[in-house]
Amino acid sequence: MSVLEIKNLHVSIEDKEILKGVNLTMNSGEIHAIMGPNGTGKSTLSAAIMGNPNYEVTEGEVLLDGENILELEVDERARAGIFLAMQYPSEIPGITNAEFMRAAINAKRDEDDKISVMDFIKKLDEKMAILDMPEEMAERYLNEGFSGGEKKRNEILQLMMMEPTFAILDEIDSGLDIDALKVVSQGVNEMRGDNFGALIITHYQRLLNYITPDVVHVMMDGRVVKTGGADLAKRLESEGYAGISKELGIELIEE
């Protein structure tokens, strides 16, 4: 079992503090969801964990099995087993999906243990079938000209191919119709197991109807203010964040 610990994490953007002491612990084998109003720091948390240079960590630690990954470069964090599915994936012309994923898989392997072409193609075909993706998607340039739904499916395809220890899924449901949402959720559920954990950032209960979380965290004003089970997300759906903020005596500020 692996453990990802976020301890007293403070993060600023251009001298404005966004995260104000986030504490959260998750184990592999668990699915955690983070919910909260706009502007509360959910996406900032994902960016800081992965090492986006636009976000300055001013205090705190992010520990993967006891090692502070904040001291690692972005590629080193990925090789250590952290994966980020971004809300707005970048387009990279000139490199195909297949080329990118094979290179990413091999980057985590020793020189004498690279994945063979045949094994890669077999695995790719299996995962694309689960996500109902046409074969030609593998040969298209990475995210170039993709629709929003195609980009989200492609992020989940990368997740399934790379098999990280922990995945951070930043609003993977954004802009998806119900059919695409079901397919993307199926891909995440295929990953569930003792050696995989996910931190899902979302605004809506509808995603959690298909990916049932073990733990739900509510973020407000740069902190985790309440933690509970899957029923907490359903409560948010019915009451909104106003009910939680009133219960905790927190002023609800949406940006």
TrEMBL record:
Residues 4-246 form the ABC transporter domain. The keyword ATP-binding applies. GO terms for molecular function: ATP binding; ATP hydrolysis activity. PROSITE patterns: ABC_TRANSPORTER_1, ABC_TRANSPORTER_2. The keyword Transcription regulation does not apply. SMART domains: AAA. Keywords: ATP-binding, Nucleotide-binding. NCBIfam families: sufC (TIGR01978). Belongs to the ABC transporter superfamily. Ycf16 family. This is Fe-S cluster assembly ATPase SufC.
